[in-house]
Amino acid sequence: MNIAREIIWPIIAVIAAFVVGGVVILILGDNPLAAYSLLLSNSFGSFRDIGWTLHYATPLIFTGLAVAVAFRCGLLNIGAEGQLYVAAFAAAWVGITFGGRIVDVFGTKEDWSLASLPGFLLVPLCMFAAIAAGAIWGAIPGVLKAKFGSHEVINTIMLNFIGIALVGYLTQYHYKVPGDPIQQTAPIGEAAQIPKLNEFLGFLPYDVPLNVSFLLALLMCVLVYSFLWKTKWGYELRAVGENPSAAEYGGISTRKQIIIAMTISGGLAGMVGIGEVLGKEHEFESGFSAEWGFLGIAVALLGRNHPLGVLIAALFFGVLLRGQIFVDAFTPRVSKDLGWVLQAIIILFVACFQIYTRDKGRSTAV
Amino acid sequence: MSEIFTFALLFAAIRSATPLIFAGLGGLFSERSGVINIALEGMMLAGAFTGAVVTFETGNPYVGLLAGMLSGGVLAFLYAIACIRFEADQVVAGMAINFLMIGLPSLVSGAIYDSAGSTPQIDKADLLPNLLNSISIASIGAFCLVPLTWYVIYKTPFGLRLRAAGENPGAADAAGVKVLGMRYVAVVISGLLAAAGGAYLSIGQSSLFTISMTAGRGFIALAALILAKWRPLPVLLACLFFGFTEALTIQIQGVIKLPSGEDIPVQFIQMIPYVLTIIVLAGFIGTSRAPKALGLPYRKEN
Known about the structure:
The complex is a heterodimer. Chain A has 14 helices and 2 strands; from the N terminus they run ααααββαααααααααα. Chain A starts with a helix and ends in a 9-residue tail after the last helix. By secondary structure, chain A is an all-alpha fold. A two-stranded antiparallel ribbon of chain A has the order 1-2. In chain A, a hairpin with a 2-residue loop joins strand 1 (102-105) and strand 2 (108-111). Chain A has helices at 2-28, 32-40, 47-72, 80-97, 119-148, 152-175, 213-230, 232-242, 244-249, 254-270, 272-281, 292-302, 307-330, 338-357; strands at residues 102-105, 108-111. Chain A has a single domain (46-330), classed as Orthogonal Bundle (ABC transporter involved in vitamin B12 uptake, BtuC). In chain B, strands 1-2 form a two-stranded antiparallel sheet. In chain B, helix 5 (137-155) crosses helix 6 (157-167). By secondary structure, chain B is mainly α. Chain B has a single domain (7-287), classed as ABC transporter involved in vitamin B12 uptake, BtuC. Classes of the chains: A mainly alpha, B mainly alpha.
């Protein structure tokens, strides 16, 4: 009964969003059914489709978990985007600096590295760098909220602008191969790369970039669940989210939990950098994120801030991300911005339907 | 230094502050009534987009401004339904409105102009005109709005009821104030004003709409509102302060050099208003007191 109530409202929210989105498509002069069938029918037909869908879902599992952990503590982390940018750059920086990267600068070879570590050291170091950078970028608004009471929403938004500008500067002025027209760093050392799944699974086509970070994402779902519901720390974190004054009365430091939650949240968002830099691009590129940090908010809300829900919601958005490419290409008028609109309406409906699920949502006011 | 601090800088500061003043005063109405308005950014974008489209189509910036404001009002009404009728988490619903206005304008402009990135360029003669040197008529409007808001909020029965709805809705209700009605009106006013600020960006300061052209100004206006402790005259000063720094960052570009003689990288210049917002929030929020019922849905007790 309880589970049914958990599931029914998110589903209604999605259907309602599609109805509203359909009206928008109709007004714009396209056929909503045609657009929706393009959106939904290119995701499961073959191993290639499934592989791409899971690939699109992977960063959203990380950011969805990130937003969910913060939400469980009564915080809205809109900064996952900035956190994953900073993290991806950190992973690339370690991959270049400790990966023995030799760069070809207009014909002369330059050694940009300090060391050339073997993969079994370099990969964990890169992963640590990504998680740490994301965690620090997440901890800043946590500390600001705990110490000064300034609102995490505004601060995370500001830190998105700052973080993206900062790594943009580092890329453009310090880590871009001179002459490269694209705003991207030099490639990471080969030892820093993590394997794609098609190296083990023969049935996945060579062009599917799905990599082992997907397995890391699944692992994180389990770990986040265990942390939140099976440990004392998780209990304290949730207690602050449910009722901060009661938690404080029960001897839990709200301020400490706020900082912990934002740090974990940032670290989870930072893991996006692992899959994208070490697994797919093998370099950091400005503008590499398809707004995954913001999509994570929709994923978390739709998934009711539960790791299993986050996983399901991320797969659903993976389908949409895969499909919107086809919508963009094969409908005359509707562009892929439809994704933003659907996402916004889903969030709005989920927020409105909370009145029926009778859970309080977040309880910390501004 | 003298080449930086000039009258041109003052005018630039006023131009930069104009959209913030509209949005900040808009936020003041909403938040004084008890509804957080993190959706100012989205409402500004609605005004900017609709303003640009209608001005381009009609060639009349005043019609464009009005249409832009109207679109912000409609969006605000939607937001109000979510927050007031459905008691949705106001911050979550507000972000949904912001996301909607990232996607919807490019979806619509992609469909009607076949260009999702921006709307067509508006003829210079069709933009909101400048009076006195380089001060836009919209800037003058923004400055006039400050005493008007002050008068409405503090000197009229409407303002008294609005403040009561945000401070002590239970008592206000008992005294016969329609708390929910007041909040609906306040949120819609905030949408109209924020959208006016947005429209100024697309049909005053520039001559077209581009995706997310507000670039966080809605949030900066919110920070200004907090800095101003939710009072109209300080809102003006806080917005001028933020506008001044924005203008300054534009002016020092290429003028002030690093010790090495190179230009300051543009990314650092761009960061300044955002860093400043964080510092200001951290430094002043402790001393400012929000309306007591801010963010709390109101339900009549049975």
